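Action item from last meeting closed. Structure (185 res):
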């Protein structure tokens, strides 16, 4: 990978690195914004979050590249665990992020255009929760955590639908800005 990067012209390398850094910062910002919402007052499921950072990861996966999205996702998980979490939150996030990334691959390459943004987000939210349960099973060593699965899957549907809707709006506005900037010339 490093050899390939050194063969590219400098301006392309700088543009790619800068774009990835901006997307990483945006996903970290959305992770932090999630901590400001008192969502636990309304939804009493421990560890529940909306997954707003996944908007950035999904957009990066579809519009930049899978490798860039994986790097951004892994970096966000590491940094947000360092800044806002703990070792156990790192393991939960890493496991969930891996499963969600597998969902992105399935949606992109197997399901292709048969699933919209909301469907992709709901599937990835459900897989993220399943991945977290595998981490909990590994950490706690008890199968009892699997009884938590129906609740997590139930809440993954509205959370994934919300992030899918926000992703759809983001893509729509980006496309509008692209068309508007082309019309200016």
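Sequence:
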């Amino acid at each position: 990978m490093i050899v390939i990067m050194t063969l590219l012209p400098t301006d392309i390398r700088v543009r790619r690195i800068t774009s990835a850094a901006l997307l990483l910062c945006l996903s970290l910002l959305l992770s932090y914004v999630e901590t400001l919402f008192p969502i636990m007052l309304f939804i009493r499921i421990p560890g529940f979050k909306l997954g707003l950072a996944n908007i950035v990861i999904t957009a990066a996966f579809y519009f930049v590249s899978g490798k860039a999205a994986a790097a951004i996702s892994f970096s966000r998980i590491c940094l947000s665990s360092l800044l806002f979490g703990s070792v156990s939150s790192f393991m939960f996030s890493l496991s969930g992020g891996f499963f969600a990334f597998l969902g992105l691959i399935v949606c992109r390459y197997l399901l292709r255009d048969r699933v919209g943004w909301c469907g992709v987000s709901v599937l990835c939210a459900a897989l993220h929760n399943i991945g977290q349960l595998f981490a909990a099973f590994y950490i706690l060593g008890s199968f009892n955590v699997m009884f938590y699965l129906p609740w997590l899957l139930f809440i993954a549907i509205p959370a994934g639908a919300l992030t899918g809707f926000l992703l759809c709006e983001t893509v729509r506005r980006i496309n509008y800005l692209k068309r508007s900037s082309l019309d200016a010339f």
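Note appended to the action item: The chain is about 80% helix and 0% strand.
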